[in-house]
Design a protein that fits this description.
Order of helices and strands of chain A: HHEHEHHEHHEEHHHHH
Number of strands of chain A: 5
Strand order of the largest sheet of chain A: 2-1-5-4-3
Largest interface: A-B, 26 and 23 residues
Structural class of chain B: alpha+beta
Number of strands of chain B: 9
Shape of chain A: elongated
Oligomer: heterodimer
Shape of chain B: globular
C-alpha cells in the first residue's frame, strides 16, 4: 500500500507544481508512512545564511527553534553522519553510538515527540551534502519502506533542486565552459601567462585573454585563481 | 567512435568484441571470467566505444525486451511494482562497462559521457523510445537532475553490496539535446557498418535528428 503510494508520488512529480505544493506532497507521503515531519538542508555550508541552508522544514516549530538556537546542526550526530556516509540511517542507530552531547539531543527531541527518525544524504548540484531527516513518534518503517522512502527522497530532492535552480538569479549559477575555455583555464592553473598559452594553442594572445575573461564571468569569479577553484569544484576541469 | 555491432556485422569486430568480453569479465580485483553470459546471443546489440587504434574504451550491451532479457529471466523481482517492461521500441541496457584502468580521469569521464550520449543517439536513430536499466541509486540522482524521464519499476534492492533500482528511461530528442549539452558531447558518436541488404536495423542519418527537430 505505502509502496504504491511512493510510486504514485513519483509519477505526480511530472505535473506542474510549485515549491510549497511539492513540499506538501512529500510531507503527505512520509505521513502515510508514519513519519510526522522532516527537515531538509545542507549542514556543511558555513557562511551561508540559514534560510539558504534549510530547503524545507516541517519539524515542530518549537523544536526547530531550539535546535537552531543551540546550533545543533554542527554537532547533531545524525547531521554529522550524513556528511560522512552516503547510506541512509535510522536515528536511534546513530544516537546509540554517539557521545553524551548526542544522547542529550535525542532526549530533548523525545521531549518534543520525536522518538526516532530516518535520515539520508544526497549531493546537491554544486557538490554539497543535502540531508533529509524525518522524525516520528512511532517508527514503523520496514526495510522495503525505507528503500522506497530513500528513492522518493532522491526524486523529491531533484525536483526541488531543479525548481530552486530556476529561481536562483542566473549570475549566481556557474555556467558550462566551452572546451576552449576549459583548455585555457587548465593552462592558467598550471601557471602559464596569456602569451604562453597563445603559443601553446597557436591562437592570438587577445583571444586567450577573452577566453579566460569568459570563464570568470561564467563562474562568477573575480580572480583567475577563483575561476580555477570553481571550475575544479564543479568538475569542469581536471588537473 | 561508437560502433554498433550486431550478429550481422560481428565478423568485422572480432578483436574488439574479444576486448569487450574481457572488460565485461573483469572483476573488481582483476579476476577475469569469459565475460559472456546466456544473453550474448544473435539478438544482442553492442555499442563499442573504440579509440582510433581500435582499442575498446567501453561498451553497452542492449537486448530486445520482447525476447528473453535480464529483467524477464534473472531479476524480475527488481520490477516488482510496475512489472517487467516489454515492447518493440524498448531495449534493455543489460550490461555496461568502461575501462577505468588508465590514470587520465578526464579521458575516462569523457568516455563515460560519450557512451551515455551515444546510447541516446543510437536509440533515436534506430527508432527506440525507451530503455530499461538497473541503475545504482547513487547515480539516479545525477540523471534526474539533468531532467531525464526516469521511472522506477520496482523497489530498490541490494546486488553484490550496492543498491540498484530498475528504471525505464524515456528517450526523446529533448533528452538527447540536454544530454549532449550537459555532458559536452556535441558531435554524432554512432557509426554503423550495416549489412548490404535486408538489414533489420536501419539508422536514420545523424543530421536527420536535427533536420526533423528543426521541422518540429
Amino acid at each position: 500500500m505505502t509502496i504504491n503510494t511512493t510510486f504514485d508520488f513519483i509519477d505526480r512529480l511530472d505535473l506542474p507544481t510549485d515549491g510549497p505544493s511539492l513540499i506538501g506532497s512529500f510531507q503527505e507521503l512520509i505521513g502515510e508512512m508514519g513519519m510526522g515531519s522532516f527537515l531538509m538542508g545542507t549542514p556543511e555550508r558555513l557562511g551561508v545564511p540559514v534560510e539558504e541552508r534549510v530547503w524545507a522544514n516541517t519539524w515542530p516549530e518549537q523544536w526547530m527553534q531550539h535546535w537552531a538556537s543551540r546550533k545543533y546542526m554542527a554537532v547533531d550526530p545524525v547531521a554529522k553522519r550524513l556528511m560522512t556516509d552516503s547510506a541512509p540511517v535510522r536515528w536511534t542507530d546513530v544516537y546509540r553510538n554517539s557521545n553524551k552531547a548526542g544522547l542529550r539531543i535525542l532526549k530533548e527531541a523525545n521531549e518534543h515527540g520525536m522518538q526516532d527518525g530516518f535520515a539520508l544524504p544526497i549531493y546537491s548540484r554544486d557538490g554539497f551534502v543535502v540531508g533529509i531527516s524525518m522524525a516520528t513518534a512511532h517508527y514503523e518503517l520496514g526495510e522495503k519502506e525505507e528503500k522506497c522512502l530513500h528513492m522518493a527522497s532522491i526524486y523529491f530532492h531533484t525536483r526541488l533542486e531543479r525548481m530552486r535552480a530556476k529561481n536562483i538569479p542566473p549570475s549566481r549559477t556557474p555556467k558550462v565552459l566551452t572546451q576552449r575555455e576549459q583548455e585555457c583555464l587548465c593552462w592558467v592553473a598550471s601557471g602559464k601567462t596569456d602569451w604562453e598559452i597563445s603559443q601553446i594553442l597557436n591562437i592570438a594572445e587577445q583571444t586567450v585573454h577573452e577566453y579566460v575573461q569568459n570563464t570568470l564571468i561564467k563562474l562568477n569569479a573575480t580572480t583567475r585563481a577563483q575561476a580555477v577553484a570553481v571550475a575544479i569544484y564543479t568538475k569542469q576541469i581536471m588537473l | 567512435m561508437l560502433e554498433i555491432v550486431t550478429s550481422r556485422n560481428a565478423m568485422l569486430y572480432q578483436d574488439a568484441l574479444e576486448d569487450m568480453f574481457r572488460l565485461f569479465g573483469r572483476g573488481p580485483d582483476g579476476w577475469t571470467t569469459s565475460g559472456k553470459d546466456r544473453f550474448d546471443t544473435d539478438d544482442a546489440l553492442y555499442l563499442l566505444l573504440t579509440r582510433d587504434d581500435g582499442a575498446v574504451l567501453g561498451a553497452h550491451r542492449l537486448l530486445p525486451t520482447v525476447g528473453p532479457h535480464q529483467f524477464s529471466e534473472v531479476t524480475p523481482e527488481l520490477c516488482d511494482v510496475r512489472g517487467v517492461t516489454r515492447g518493440n521500441t524498448i531495449l534493455e541496457l543489460s550490461r555496461s562497462v568502461l575501462d577505468e584502468t588508465g590514470t587520465d580521469r578526464h579521458a575516462i569521464e569523457t568516455a563515460r559521457n560519450r557512451l551515455m550520449v551515444g546510447l541516446f543517439e543510437f536509440c533515436l536513430r534506430a527508432g527506440y523510445d525507451a530503455f530499461t536499466w538497473a541503475i545504482p541509486t547513487d547515480a539516479l540522482y545525477h540523471f534526474l537532475l539533468l531532467g531525464l524521464g526516469i521511472k522506477p519499476l520496482g523497489v530498490p534492492a541490494e546486488i553484490e553490496g550496492s543498491r540498484f533500482v530498475a528504471v525505464r528511461v524515456r528517450v526523446d530528442r529533448e533528452a538527447f539535446e540536454v544530454l549532449r549539452m550537459m555532458l559536452n558531447v556535441p558531435e554524432p558518436q554512432v557509426h554503423y557498418v550495416g549489412a548490404p541488404a535486408g538489414d533489420r536495423l536501419v539508422l536514420v542519418p545523424p543530421d536527420g535528428l536535427h533536420a526533423s527537430r528543426a521541422a518540429a
